[in-house]
């Protein structure tokens, strides 16, 4: 749901593997003559296939290391945009940190796109090879900020010096640390409800103690909830092995964990989503039987749960048969009871989803130029390989298309999506080839190139 949770680092870890599995097109060697010719043909900018969703503003962040990447984007209650990223200095976000240091970068932009502030978190050099990496980001009801990460040790946040490993921190609305605590294992997803209860999630391997005794996992998704003061409320470890990709929370505080499950004897992931009550009781799990792939993103609001990701295979969803002989993206809607509502095939791969406070569902992902995109949009212009970016808005009750935009590029990757309470959409990702998000062509510089795009409702 807009403005109360974020995740995404798991996606960054799996980007390369998913790109290979999904056939995501050309790498970093540079464009062929054929691609160069297509570049000229496609420079007219984004393709708008319905009214709405126009570009409001675009920002870029560039840094020296090619492994740098955005992690999360989220709106606060006023519509300001916060971003979390991992970079190696120097980075054009500034900061007085020695060159070559791995830092966490937290930034805030106004509704109009003005950069309000940037905070760089860096571990002391005394830890050997210092690093801080962000994993997840959330905004609380009064616009304080929660984030999770891992660091090499000695990071001081909110008056506490943290030991090496995973941590949870709260920052005020100006990005200044309020408090922090260490965590027994990495938390790649994060949510907070209206009571201030904080839920962390991830994939558990080995034995850890969250505070109520040891629990063990062998690549098992987990959820842990704390109250507003940081006192442990409950722990849930899924009985099935798999991977956690995203976490959503509905209006009643129930939680939805998306990702994939290993279903023996196959070594491949089956896309799945699970509902767990606000008190930690598992309600249901919905694997997409007959498919391999992953649910990358989940959103919940208004009695409906929408998931997006990619799969290969054939699934039956309600009264529809969705057939994907090769990798296809999807958007699927469930009721809170887990019953299928509507579903669509979208693009070639990837899938991010968020909801606004009204009846809108926004989906972003990648598509292959020349393919039948889905939703009756027909053949879409773009580059070969699933390297082009799309953003579209659907009606939540029916799945009917409201607007759609495509952004052709020979190498662009959406990483995270947020929708404000008012319905604006913010998308962050990377580009390693020219792309036009509606304000003119962006050309990549050597190293990492991050984009932040804000669209109207």
UniProtKB/TrEMBL annotation:
Q: Which PANTHER family match?
A: ENDOGLUCANASE, LIPOPROTEIN
Record key words, sorted: Signal
Report what the protein is called: Lipoprotein
Signal peptide span: 1-22
State the organism named in the record: Archangium gephyra
Cited SUPFAM superfamilies: Quinoprotein alcohol dehydrogenase-like (SSF50998)
């Amino acid at each position: 749901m807009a403005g109360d949770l974020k995740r995404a680092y798991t996606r960054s870890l799996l980007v390369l593997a998913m790109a290979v599995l999904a056939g995501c097109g050309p790498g970093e060697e540079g464009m062929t003559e054929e691609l160069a010719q297509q570049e000229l043909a496609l420079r007219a900018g984004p393709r708008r296939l319905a009214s709405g969703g126009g570009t409001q503003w675009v920002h870029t962040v560039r840094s020296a290391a090619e492994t740098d990447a955005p992690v999360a984007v989220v709106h606060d209650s006023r519509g300001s945009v916060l971003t979390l990223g991992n970079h190696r200095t120097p980075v054009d976000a500034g900061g007085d940190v020695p060159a070559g240091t791995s830092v966490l970068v937290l930034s805030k932009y106004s509704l109009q796109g003005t950069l309000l502030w940037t905070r760089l978190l860096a571990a002391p050099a005394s830890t050997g090879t210092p690093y801080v990496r962000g994993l997840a980001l959330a905004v609380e009801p009064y616009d304080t900020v929660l984030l999770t990460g891992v660091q090499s040790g000695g990071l001081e946040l909110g008056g506490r010096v943290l030991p090496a490993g995973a941590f949870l921190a709260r920052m005020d609305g100006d990005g200044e640390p309020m408090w922090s605590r260490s965590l027994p294992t990495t938390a790649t997803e994060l949510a907070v409800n209206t009571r201030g209860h904080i839920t962390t999630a991830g994939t558990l391997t080995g034995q850890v103690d969250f505070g109520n005794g040891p629990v063990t996992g062998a690549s098992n998704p987990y959820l842990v909830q704390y109250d507003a003061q940081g006192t442990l409320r409950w722990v849930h470890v899924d009985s099935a092995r798999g991977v956690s990709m995203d976490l959503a929370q509905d209006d009643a505080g129930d939680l939805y964990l998306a990702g994939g499950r290993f279903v023996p004897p196959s070594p491949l992931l089956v896309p799945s989503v699970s509902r767990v009550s606000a008190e930690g009781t598992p309600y249901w799990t919905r694997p997409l039987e007959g498919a391999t792939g992953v649910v990358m993103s989940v959103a919940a609001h208004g009695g409906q749960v929408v998931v997006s990701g990619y799969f290969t295979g054939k699934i039956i969803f309600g009264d529809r048969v969705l057939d994907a002989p090769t990798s296809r993206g999807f958007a699927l809607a469930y009721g809170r009871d887990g019953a299928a509502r509507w579903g669509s095939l979208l693009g070639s791969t990837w899938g991010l989803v968020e909801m606004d406070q009204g009846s809108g569902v926004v989906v972003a992902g990648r598509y292959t130029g020349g393919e039948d995109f889905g939703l009756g949009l027909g053949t879409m212009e773009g580059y070969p390989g699933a390297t082009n970016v799309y953003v579209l808005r659907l009606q939540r009750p029916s799945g009917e298309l409201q607007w759609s935009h495509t952004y052709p590029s020979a190498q662009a990757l959406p990483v995270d999506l947020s929708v404000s309470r008012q319905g604006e959409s913010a998308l962050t990702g990377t580009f390693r080839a020219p792309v036009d998000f509606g304000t003119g062509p962006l050309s990549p510089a050597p190293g990492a190139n991050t984009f932040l795009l804000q669209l109207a409702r």
